Amino acid sequence: MGFKKAGFSITTAVELDGKRAVVYKRNISPREVINTDVREVDFSGYRGVDGIIAGPPCQPYSRATPTSRRGDRHPYYGLDLEVIRAVRQVNPRFVVVEEVPAWRPNIIINELQKLGYSTHAGVYDMSIYGAPIRRRRWIALAFKPGHADGAVARLSIPAEPPPRPIDLLGGLPPEPCGEDPCTHNGTIIYNHVNYSINSKIRELIPKIPPGHSLATAHRAGLIDASKYVKDINKKHSYWLYRIHPTKPMPTVPHPRRSMLLHPIHDRMVTVRELARLYTYPDWFDFRPLSVDGMYRAITDSVPPKFAKKLAEAILRALPW
User: Fold this and answer.
1) Chain-centre distance of CA 191, in angstroms?
2) 17/136 same-domain check
3) C-beta of residue 240 within 8 angstroms of C-beta of residue 222
4) Strand runs labelled E in 126-175
5) 131 and 216 belong to one structural domain
6) Using CA atoms in the order 243, 245, 246, 249, what is the torsion angle rounded to 10 degrees?
7) What is the pTM of this model?
8) Does one domain contain both 21 and 151?
9) Residue 279 burial by CB count (10 A; 0-12/13-18/19+): exposed, middle or buried?
10) Which of 144, 194, 224, 317 might form a disulfide with 154, Cβ 3.0–4.6 angstroms?
């Protein structure tokens, strides 16, 4: 969506999950969405496109994946190398690859350099570029030889202070909607839904201060959580995390399981609220995904504001 907003025409997308493919097609409107395993796609028919944008699955590398399933023990391991196959078949002017910080871009960078591309790779914190999330991701870039001389040196993504989370959450109903979509003050609101929390946990929520999870508040002596939760010291630092109203929030891999909390209201954030924090516009509709699927789709994605800045930087760097 960021590249589309920057002026690129999105021709083709590949997405394995059928419901995510529907969401992508409805909101991005590419010419086609191929709903299959990327390893089954022959990209040779797409020669002539300007760029390839890739977000390979992060599970083989993510710290949120159990150690026993990371690396080559995960079925998605090696899918990042499909980028190289696609590049060989398409011969694009530029390539963008996004991945989690635990990933290493060395193999892809080396292979792209062997193909003659000039390359750049770095870990970017999205909160520096206008998204209120301390989300760090590898961005690997490659520019085609002969058409982009000096493009890496010209690449510049302007920084922007992030908005305050509380400012992004205004104008929505204070409680989740009972149906999706719903209407509030005459405006249609999509995906303002979440999960209810059991009564024992609900007692805890008002005690958790902004910028803390249950575990960090307990360790700081702000709450005695041991009488509510067994083995509180084993709970990870983003379980029952309450977003700070004025500071960027951390990346929470699974907002539903972690029960990510609203900065003011004593409840989970809704899908719409999380989408706003990730800089999605209100017209972006995540149906027909389940509520859990909506949360996961958002947290798997790159904030559109950063993607647009990246796309604009590529436009400025390339000699169109």
Assistant:
1) 17
2) yes
3) no
4) 133-134, 136-143
5) no
6) 10
7) 0.94
8) yes
9) buried
10) 317
Residue 48 shares a structural domain with residue 74: yes
Chain segment 72-106, per-residue pLDDT in tens: 899 988 999 999 999 999 999 999 999 999 999 99
My answer on whether 136 and 20 are in the same domain is yes
pLDDT tens-digit readout, 198-221: 877 888 899 999 999 998 999 899
What is the rounded CA–CA span in Å between residue 286 and residue 293?
Answer: 9
DSSP string for 226-272:
GGTSTTGGGS-TTTTPBPPSSSPEEP-S-HHHHTPBPSSSSSBPPHH
Q: How do beta strands 136-143 and 94-99 pair?
A: antiparallel
Name the domain count of the chain: 2
Tokens for 232?
């509180």
**For the chain, which residues score pLDDT lower than 50?**
none
CA-CA distance, 179 to 120, in Å (whole number)?
45
C-beta separation of 17 from 60 below 8 A: no
CATH of the domain at 55: 3.40.50.150
Q: Which of 158, 216, 200 is nearest to 6 (CA)?
A: 158
- Indicate whether 98 and 64 sit together in one domain: yes
pLDDT score at 253: 82
